[in-house]
Amino acid sequence: MAFLFLDLLSYVVHRAQHATPLLWRLHALHHSDPDVDVTTAVRHHPFEFILASGVFWLAVLVLGVPISAAAVHGTTVFVLAALTHCNTRWPSWLERLLRPLLITLDLHLVHHSVNQRDLNRNFGAVFSAWDRLLGTFARPSSAELTFGVAELTRADACRPLAMLLTPWRMRSP
After folding, report:
1. What is the pLDDT of residue 170?
2. Comparing C-alpha atoms, which of 90, 88, 77, 66 is closest to residue 14?
3. Is the pTM of this model over 0.85?
4. From CA 134, how far away is CA 52, in angstroms rounded?
5. Rounded Cα gap, residues 57 and 79, in angstroms
């Protein structure tokens, strides 16, 4: 139950990062990568990391979630984030098998599209059920996806100092 709670919390925090202008400005760094790859999984603004981690650990402490459940969830999210941002295709049979239960590479790539509608879909960290239950699920399409954030040039999205300044260069969603 603790794992499910933490995964729902991850969904809620991620959705809030897209819906709240200040949080979006911080989270936009993650979405600014024009070449989604495994490094995108850890591409977060330091302030975003502090806020999201604070919410997560506050919930763990206040609600008495076992540290072991938090560790297992955190490790699962980290591994799955690497797999859902990698630039290596998953076998189509594996995508079809896992998609009803888990966030897969194709499901998450939809979320990284510059298309505003797709950007606000597939927020799940581990389970795709949260998106299905809360109306944010989108199936992958066969169309070619474009990644990045419209306000940032490709060069600015990849230079370290410009990346740190992303929140101050963004407009609200």
Report:
1. 84
2. 77
3. yes
4. 21
5. 19
